[in-house]
Structures are given as C-alpha cells and as structure tokens.
Amino acid sequence: MQKIKDERLLLKNLQNLRIAYMLQTIGIIGILGYVFITKGLDGMRKNPLWFVFILTTVVSAFLSMNISVEYESRKRSSKQSFLISLVVLTLISTIIGILTSFTEGFTAMNGVFIAGIVFLCGVVPISYVYYLRKKIDNQAD
C-alpha cells in the first residue's frame, strides 16, 4: 500500500480541517454566549471552554504570523519594522498607563503595572515576528 501524495487531496484535507475548526469555534462561542447570558461574565470565565477558546485563538494567531510574514513585501528591513513596532507599542502602553492612573479608584502604581503588562504582552509577538522575518531574510540570502 502506497501513501497518497496528491496535492489536491492534501488541499482538500486542509479545507476540511478549516471547516471543522470553524464549526468548533462557532460551537464554543455559542456555548460561551449562552453561559454569559445565563450566568454572567464570571460564569463564562469559569467555564473550561473559555480556556480552550483563548488557547486555540492564541495558537492560531501565532501560526498565522508565520504565513503572513512569508508572503509580505520586502519594502523595509526586519530591524526597521521591529523598531517601528516597538515605538508604537511603547506609546500605546504609555497612554494606557496614563489613562489608567487618571481613572477613579486607580493609583499611579496601577497605571505603571497595567502599562508594563500591556508592554510585555506586546513585546512577545513583536519579537516573534522579528525572529520570523530574520529567519526568512537569512533563507533568501
């Protein structure tokens, strides 16, 4: 028995997986929506499907980063894109920190803490995309 290597079958298999993933995601969102309506936000976040939904969304986003980086145009260097993204992230996290510190019930320390969390959460994907761009640039050479 030989393994089938027909690209059309591989493409059809990937399309079937995409449809199954979409149905699964719609089902999870529907169940979480029902729990949100009946038990509120806290009840929804206590549901184990919430963790599954967040985990699959994060994994899907990181996997799609590789695809988008491979097919983007080469107008800028990877270092220049990294620095621009870092400056924008710093501005966004600073603005969020300032707005948080001015919000009633929050202190300046809370603003610094929230800004730090936003910055750290943004640096991880920016660094990953930079790594992917460098890797692709090295393969192109």
Overall number of structural domains: 2
Please describe the biggest sheet, giving its number of strands, its sense, and whether it closes into a barrel.
none
The dominant shape is flat
Which class of secondary structure composition applies to the elements? mainly alpha
Q: What are the segments in which pLDDT stays under 50 over at least 5 consecutive residues?
A: none
What does the average pLDDT come to?
84
Q: Give the fraction of residues assigned to helices.
A: over 70%
Oligomer: single chain
Number of helices: 4
Q: Count of DSSP E strands? A: 0
Distance between the termini: 41 Å
Strand portion, in percent?
under 5%
Rg of Cα set: 21 Å
SSE series: HHHH
Keywords: Membrane, Transmembrane, Transmembrane helix
Protein name: Branched-chain amino acid ABC transporter substrate-binding protein
Question: Would you spell out the secondary-structure blueprint of this structure?
Answer:
Blueprint: H1 7-46, H2 48-70, H3 78-102, H4 108-140
Helix pairs in contact: 1-2, 2-4, 3-4
Structure in words:
Keywords: Membrane, Transmembrane, Transmembrane helix. The chain crosses the membrane at residues 20-37, 49-69, 81-102, 108-131. This is Branched-chain amino acid ABC transporter substrate-binding protein. By secondary structure, this protein is mostly helical. The chain is built from 4 helices and no strands. Helix 1 (7-46) packs across helix 2, helix 2 (48-70) crosses helix 4 (108-140) and helix 3 packs antiparallel against helix 4 (108-140). It folds into 2 domains: 1-70; 72-141. The protein has helices at residues 7-46, 48-70, 78-102, 108-140.
